[in-house]
Each structure stands twice: as structure tokens, then as C-alpha cells.
Amino acid sequence: MNNHPAAPAHMIVNGRLVDYPEATVHLMSPALRYGLNVFEGLRAYWNETEQQLYVFRLQEHLQRLSQSMKLLRFDPQFETEEVAENTFELLRANTVREQCHLRISAYIEGDGEHHVSGPVSYFVAAKIRPRSPKTKTGIRCRISTWVRMADSAMPPRIKCGANYVNARLARYEAHHDGYDDAIMLNGAGRVAEGPGACVFMVRRGALVTPPITDGILESITRDTLIELATDNGITVVERSIDRTELYACDELFMAGSAAEVLPVTEVDGVAVGDGQVGAITTLLQDVYFATVIGQTNSNKAWLCSVY
Ligand code: PMP
Q1: Which pTM value belongs to this model?
Q2: 3-state DSSP of the chain
């Protein structure tokens, strides 16, 4: 990495390693004019003992990128295997040896209108991004006045940049009102997700999360935690969640590749449980943090070695 830890020296654009300032797009591109881009955010974890960097669930992220491109009718001229190779190349070129966040994005260049399918370019970028200290203390959330967009309007299942306008409205409002983040309800008034993470609650000993048909992104961390919780003897229920259950539940947390497992200790000024980070949340955090860094022998298939 270079002197400024947040800014990587290099990026990959269409398979080519370029210097960071060279990674540009034309102002007339549909990517800029209409927000025609799809992307993935994922993490790579440095294991000091093994002197190894692991990209967490890269294949699943690339599959979701392909799904997003398919659903938005992008016509890419590249294979995801190539993007995976580029990701490793980039991390090696930037000599990343600490926890970082990766961004893989596919976007429409040229100067076409909003119905065009290409040309589709892609980039891969990496930034050093340590774990948030709030994973220890928890965050305060509000229920957004903004409704999560519906599958019939702007499907949250598609991870496209334009969907983050809805997320921005919710997060901006939450920050403006003095909260750490927002939780959005769907059109039916049920809990959907946060602006950048999915939602889990603990009620009566079970781990509950909205089904993927309630207007949410098909989160890879959600999938990971369902499996890890089940492996650890915790009952997992995928069902719709009412707003009032967020005030009544024992534990609540957000989860995502960037957020990891982030406890929520307060919603709309109401303490979640006793207002402290709960036991099941702590257990899942420990298991998740050990898994992503390769400290457990199970689930190794989720890790891709860089060096
Ligand atoms: N929902 C939204 C809206 C998100 O932006 C994210 C982060 N990508 C998630 C959920 C969590 O998804 P994942 O676990 O795949 O990172």
C-alpha cells in the first residue's frame, strides 16, 4: 500500500492494472448519467500466524455480480474467473497485509441511453478498512421514514449503485437526527434491511431474519450467519418481522460484508433487551471473526488465499 492508507496505489480496470488516478469514466457514460452500475463489496482478512490474506466468499460475490448483471440486462464481455484472478493480482500489487475492503463494479460505458446493454466495463479496487470499533459497543438506530423500494419497482435483490439512493435517504436522515444508522421497512410495513446491511433479531432464544422475498438484498453474510448459527445449535427462523418486534426483542444486530456483525443496542430510543450487546450476538461475532480469518477448520471453502 502507499503512504495514504485509504487510497490504494493501483486498481484493476478491464483486466489491466492501472494507477489510481487513471481509473476514470466518461461524463456521458450511462454509468454516470443513469447510475448503470452493479457492484460487490467484500472483505479480505489478514491471518498473521499463517502470513496469509484471505478473500471471504469471493465466488459467491462474483455469482451475485453476475446475477445483478443478468437482471439488469447487462451484456458483459468478460468471465467472472477473470475478475477473480484480477482481484488476487490487485491485492498482491498493492501488497495488502491487513484487513481491507474490496469493491468490484461492472458499469456501462459509451454514450448510450438507459436501455443499452453495453459496453460493460469493470473495475476492482481495494482499500484498507479495519473493523469498526462499534462492533464492540453497538449502534443506535431509527426506523426510517423512507420505505425500502419494492421488488416490483427497483429490486433490492439487484446490487446496483442506483439502489443506494434509497439507502442514502435513510442513512442521511438517521445521521441528521443523531442516530448511527437506519432500519427500513418494506411497503407492507415489515422490517426489510438497513441501508448497507441485513437485519437479525433474537426473540425467545431463536435467531430471526426476514426472508429474501421481503424486499432485501440476498446478503452473503446473512447466508454465512444462518449456517454458522445452525452449526452452533441456534435455531434460525426466516420470517417477516414486525416493527414492534424490534422494540420487544432481546437482541438485534446488522450484518454485512462491510458491517460484519454489528450489534444494535437501541431502536428509536428504546433499549434492545437490556441495552447491552447480547450473548448470542457476541457468540456469533466470535464465530464469524474466527471463520473469516481462517481460525477454524470448518468452512475453509469460503476462503480464497491471495499469497
Ligand atoms: N443489504 C444491503 C442494502 C447492503 O448494501 C448490504 C451490503 N452489501 C447487505 C444487505 C449485506 O450484504 P452482504 O452480506 O452480501 O455484504
Answers
A1: 0.96
A2: CCCCCCCCCEEEECCEEEEHHHCCCCCCCHHHHCCCEEEEEEEEEEECCCCEEEEECHHHHHHHHHHHHHHCCCCCCCCHHHHHHHHHHHHHHCCCCCCEEEEEEEEECCCCCCCCCCCEEEEEEEEECCCCCHHHHCEEEEECCCCCCCCCCCCCCCCEHHHHHHHHHHHHHHHHCCCCEEEEECCCCEEEECCCCEEEEEECCEEEECCCCCCCCCCHHHHHHHHHHHHCCCCEEECCCEHHHHHHCCEEEEEECCCEEEEEEEECCEECCCCCCCHHHHHHHHHHHHHHCCCCCCCHHHEEECC
